[in-house]
Queue: 2 jobs
Job 1
Amino acid sequence: MSTPRRPLRGVGGLLGRAARAHSPGLVLLGGVMALEAVLIAATPWPMKLLVDHTIAGAPLPPWAAALAPNQPGAGAPAGQIVWIVAATIVLFVLATTLGLVQTSLSVTLGQRMVYDLAADLFAKLQRLSLGFHARRAVGDSMRRVTTDCACIAAIIRDAALPALAALLTLVVLFAVMWRLNAALTVVAAGAVPLLILVVRRFTPPVLGRGYEYAEAESKIWDITERTLSAAPVIQAFQAEPRADEQVRRAYEGVYASALALTRVQFGLKVSSGLVTAAGAAAVLWIGALEVIAGRLTLGGLLVFLAYLAALYAPLDAMVHSAGAATEAAGGARRVLALLEEPEEVRDLPGARDLVLTAPPEVRFEGLRVGYETGRPVLDGIDLRIPAGSTLGIVGASGAGKSTLLALIPRLLDPWEGRVLIDGTDARSLTLRTLRGRIAVVLQDTILFPASIAENISYGCPDATRARIEQAARDAGAHDFVSALPDGYDSVIGQRGATLSGGERQRIAIARALLMDAPILLLDEPTSALDGATEAALLSALERLRRGRTTIMAAHRLSTIRGADSIIVFDGGRIAEQGTHQSLLGRGGLYAELHRLQCGPAPKERP
Amino acid sequence: MTGPPAHPRARWRRLLQLGRPRWRGYVLIWALTLVSSGVALLQPWPVKVLVDHILGSQPPPAWAAGAVAAGPGAAVALVAAATLLLFVLDALVDVALTLSWVRVAQRSVYDLAAATFARLQRRSIAFHAVTPVGDSLSRITGDSWCIYNAATALLFAPLHALLVGGAMVAVLLRMSPTLTAVALAAAPLLAVTSVILGRRAERARGAERQIESRIESHIQQTLTGIRVVQTFAQEDRTHGRFRELAGTAILAHRRSAIVAALSSGSAGILTTLGTGAVLGLGAWEVIGGRLTLGALLVFLAYLATLNAQLVALATAYTTARGLSASIDRALVALDAPEEVPQLTSAPPLAIAPAGGSVVFENVRFGYLPGRPVLDGVSLDIPAGATVAVVGASGAGKTTLALLVPRLLDPWSGRILISGTDTRLVGLASLRRQVAVVLQEPMLLAGTIAANIALGRPDAAREEVARAAGDAGLAALLASLPAGLDTVIGEGGATLSGGEKQRIAIARALLKDAPILILDEPTSALDAATESGILRALDRLRRGRTTLVIAHRLSTIRSADLVAVLHGGAIAELGAHDELLRRDGHYARLWRLHAAPPLLQEATA
């Protein structure tokens, strides 16, 4: 649990890009903050006028007199009081209004930055291949988009800008003080280097302990989540007392780091408080002597004291900024890591569009691919699927059937070898045109929470209602869809429109039919269904396959039987290849599988 | 996790009970709050003495007379010293208060969180099956803060405000009753606007959270459906939708921020009007000689403190409004009834050396009321026998297995071990006699050795190593530099599904219990290495009563009996070949589902 010495190293580019993209907003916000600094400086002045001129009776300074020339009553004390009260109120109202403007501006700007970054991350995630998504949990990717992106606003808006504004305020305050009384300003300014020393001395431990505290907290999350997710094992092995102990210890850790953090915060608070207090006391002391000596008015002393109190706020803000930036740095690094993730699958320079007038031939050459380095799922696959024919793939779950299918639309690129569409390497094609010519039906049909019509037209959003209905008819989905209260406009997932497995699969088939793509991929389209539903679905699948190059993975032979050619996958390789009849005749794996699923083949029957 | 809403008074009483062990600390906080109020009261006085009695010519009050008499130079030095002293005192009290809050109230939070965790992790698997981990997590880490927030919002913020406010008003009244009346005129208005706008702000925050959760579910849908999104080339559309949602979110955030700013802004303007009035009227009084300038300065300083206290009170009010929901969430988790109750003075489970029989008697169970998963299961596993349970996915096979160590209790019916109802024996003794290997290995953060020794933390190192070897972990351990002491999980080594499963098997091997529950993994083990594990499992099964949820032919064949779970009950029971011949559920199931692993079987 080491303290990052330079927490923001490496994320400068990220910040720079965001700052440039939002520079008009940032400049505007900076301007508002500068105005606020001026207002802070102006705040104690009505009081000064009141004390020095109205009460003590000194003539008004020229600038104040010029502000209210010939105004009724400006000369008399009563009139002056009215003007001073009015000025106080105006200053406060201005400050409040400016505060409102500043909040609104900075929230909008910050959220824009955050969501722009989130949108970039989201787009990046969508471009990353299946290989990435197989390795990375959805929750982790989500956390980066939804939570970690906030770092950009935390660093730029909540740390950098306030620090700048604080600096500006300090400069303005000292400039005004200098004009009031140079000697006293030097005394007050004497506190500043001391304060800077204090901040430099105490900020690193505060940041370090803050970091440790955050780490300790996240450890609690980790342990609790893991333990609760493993509740059956914990209970069965009676490890509850140990889990309790672990959590108790983790909480002890959080408590200890909270205490440590509080202690170093004290160091900062007490010593900076002490310096400010000593400064105020010194100003009060010397200032009072100056007043007695007639070199400073009482009102001037009050302005000094007010400024000293105001000095503390910007310095505090600077310390706070440093903390905010450190906290956000972890998020920034996680965001950056994702943004810099290499895009394994992308359009290569000079990629061409895929033009198909007829179903193409698909060929695999020497394929080797997997999700984790050193663990290939497919190893040495050579295969040719003639144009317009259907290939069936049989194999155990985990044998690599889905991986092979994912290679065709380039959801994944092979480590070695090539995928050829009509003799062209799929990697030399643009993703958009390649994927636009491929339709898929998966085992767990992924339907989105939208209307049935939208789900069917997912691949071609501008399809007319007539074409959608025709596709649904061909897929055998029209009857049950029409029977729903809202028909094609029924929203999936809402009450009354929950669909059975067979119905969901028909919608997926309609989706593929509507796309009318020359390449069709079917990944276990029937394995979630019972036998009767499967039989009913097969004819729809048959219609779908007509006139397309089809690859169909299934572990039910009844689904696969009609394929022109069948391969059997085993241990990442093709173990057998042939037609249903020839494979049965060979008496190998396929024949064994068939015997188990469908009973002995006719000719083997004694 | 929806419990009946606690009776309001019971809720607060329970909360008080939770805080009681640290009552001394809360008293200390109370005392420190008192001191801090006193310091706040004194702070503007040195300046008053300076302005009125040293720089001005007012006769000093008795307590300041000595200082003033010492001459202007010394008096000024004394005033400066007093200012410094008050500052230091204020800082010290502040430090002590903050430290006490951490030591007392934050500690209470952690106590509550740990207790809630302890309760939640012991709840039945039926609960965990229907409750997302995230929900439990937010109760432990988030809602536990209710005790801290209750202390701040209900006890100390009002106390401090009342103390400071009361004392200051008393002092002000003595200095000038009229001016005090003017100063306080805006106060009720300020309180009312703060409360009204506070509610608005709460609603606006609700809208923010809603849009954020919509964005989250959009991301989740896209990422889980990434195959379809990419294949159908819909990235631009989902991205457009994201941008659209983000636009709405930005608006919601802005609205919320503006409401919050309006709230503080209107408070600021009301405060300003009060301050302006006091300044004007006060100056008039000073000119008229009815009030000293120093007194006016004290007035203005007090007014600022009073207004700050009012705003703090309004914030406390808003916090308090959200508090009861949070308290209820924490308490429902903490005080949930025992679903797997243990009889007091239940005798330990006694199993004969020959092994124990396991009998299910007309067992009914489900995760949701009215939807039984098991509906009248009766099954008899003789001592030392192996029964393989087969059935379609979702038929309730795993549920059946979880009933044996009472990770679940049936709605009705009984489970008997060696003839004794499992609910009548000590839970700890029951679970000690049952070893389980679940389909999901569920490894915990920590070393491999700690994971294997989960059921027997005191096991000797050699025993752990032997169990690891028997489970086929030798090659893996040899490849890891730290061997058994390799830390797994986040930041540690990543293991494949098969490796994790083998650790789970080693865990059961080490536990060495007379009753064994196996939920066979379907695909986590690759064909090449599984035979070794199967042999280890065979060894493990010897002489034990075993319930195995079977997918592999070899497992099913080596079982003494196969039970087919269908429609919530045991549909068929018999040996494999016998059941195939019967051509009923088993034969059909076999054809539809069991085939692919068979393929592995044939090539192994």
Job 2
Amino acid sequence: MGKTLFEKIWDKHIVSKIDGGPSVFYIDRHFIHEVTSPQAFTGLNKRGIKALRPKQVVATPDHNVPTIDQHLPIKEELSRLQVETLKQNCIDHGIEMYGLGHPFQGIVHVVGPELGITQPGMTIVCGDSHTSTHGAFGSIAFGIGTSEVEMVLATQCLMQSKPKIMRINVDGKLNKGVVSKDIVLYILSKITASGATGHAVEFAGSAIRSLSMEARMTICNMSIEMGARCGMIAPDDTTFEYIKGRKFAPQGAEWDKKLAEWKELYSDADATFDSELNLKAEDIEPMITYGTNPGMGIGITGRVPELKEIDEKEKASFEKSLQYMGLEPGINIKGRKVDYVFIGSCTNSRIEDLRMVANFVKGKKKADGVEVWIVPGSKQVEKQAIEEGIDKVLLEAGFYLRQPGCSACLAMNEDKIPAGKYCISTSNRNFEGRQGAGARTLLASPLTAAAAAVTGVVTDVRELLN
Amino acid sequence: MKALKTIHSRFVPVNIENIDTDQIIPARFLKATTKDGFGKNLFRDWRYENDDESKPKKDFPLNQPQYSGEILVGAKNFGCGSSREHAAWSILDAGFRVVISSFFADIFKNNALNNGVLPVQVSEDFLQKIFALGSDATLTVDLESQTITIDQSGESETFDINNYKKTCLLNGYDDIDYLMSMQKEIEAFELARN
């Protein structure tokens, strides 16, 4: 019987298996950042041991850094201490760190792929749930807790049980104004925020194949929002072309050897999946969320569900969610006023996202009364944007580019949305308080966010496209 | 890690679905570099008006004196979202050793187990029975027999946990101790694949 993509990679990383229990699972690459690593290093230090394979670890501060004036010392004392602690831990354990101001600094899930560190067939972990992003390259990549960060630093391994495997096929051609963020929000609206828990999810089908690497990353990034252990896409020519020539990509004969291995990474025709879902690209319109989990999404012309459409057990949670959002059942949210627009995060802060926004806003002006934050995913994205003149296009439209970091996606730094305000956000979570206590988040694509930035209201971007 | 065998206790019910780790511990409290003291900020924004400790929200169970104990009960899909282990630390630091739900998010489940907090997954029906109990009701969770019992009625259910994790928790062993004992095998694995 054939193997799935997941199984091919999984089987190659089992060091040993405990009867009736988990396996000792080998990790190829480990990304660390300032927020979920300090206690792990404290654990190592208490044991008097060093990181086992420091060359397989890469660090960058991202969650807790300011997105303006990065050349100045971080003002907030605890944030500064956390970033300095990461630096010291990396020095003590011989780990490469791209600190603030370094040309490679940025959001860890933007940095790994753009440097060619992320490669097909690898196992990749990070103390961050959006590590699933790296699965877009045909790798097994997942978020871990701090105890597990400590385990990987100490032993380069984790105890892991094999998940079930699900395949989600999206076939057909995307409609105008519909981009990869809409695909993943659509999938979430179909299967809910827990629809893939306990599963590794492979995304497949012609609509997925047609996407660029950056667009694929957006989809795998949000597989955790379905509860998935990881999300992955089989590597193909798009993948190989993206990796080739990047800083840490294999070179010369090593490239040829790796390429031959990578070409074997696909689900065999006779592989079996624990479950499978088939969706049509044509059914997807620009999406927006109305509630407080990413599964609560609708098409831009759709309605928030009526109370009677909600399962009895879920009614209380649904009502609590709408109350928090200040929205009523049954309404259409198109046309509602927006206070903030956030374009950024590990979901949508790459150069293609910024290009998409710049192309759209060119010749248009920011709407009055809307605050717009555009935060590039990394120093390299920022540099590229400036080289392409994207910063100038944005400036002419009334927006400016901030400096790289996680920013208002989780509001750990100063970039917080005030209580009660509505923010259209290209990030990944609309949880209560996620963008600041009391903040109300509407998740959408960079295009839909850019449309709101110029109209000041929730907009069907298709009406503004030529 | 502190061993866990049997917990017999009252419980605190939070009957909300999809409780994500941002609610359990908001991101602004993740700036610490130690594991201590997170308990006082557990469910911070559901517990207090405007982040003000002098204004507890009266309808939130953690603020209601009739609810107490070492068991926290949440509705379906508990612990989804961010991988922050601070969520497990805050639950433990607030005095809980068991979390009950009809469904747990994967990363939270691992984080809880790695900190000696037992996630007990029960059927949706059993969960609704627990939510329907009065505040003086008690539950018994026995890890050895993998059973959870409503003491007053004697109704019980068994729950799943893999044998390895069960042994760890019964004895207070950490994964890292086991993994470090595997160092030779890990090095042999690395050599064999190169």
